[in-house]
Write the structure tokens for this entry.
Amino acid sequence: MGIGLVIAIITMIAAGIHAFTGALVVFMYLEQLEFFYAQAPNGLKSFGNALCMTSISLENYVSSLLVTMVTKISIEDHMSRSIPGNLNKDHLDKH
């Protein structure tokens, strides 16, 4: 999990490089699942795994909510969209 946390920090710094995100999933989420499974009592192993997966899904929902809020605020203020609908056509460096 330590390697996964270090990779998570690197991923936050270099958010545009998606290879780090894949390594984060491999090293952190899988190790986190294994940690919950290994440390939980026999009757709570599936609950620990479910709790881990719930935290991951909650993280995805919060990030999706943030993207939606940024897009809505930028449209209401008549600014150019911070997160364009089509990255192939809308280049942020040209705004």
Q: What stands out?
A: The first helix runs from residue 2 to 13. DSSP finds three helices and no strands in the chain.
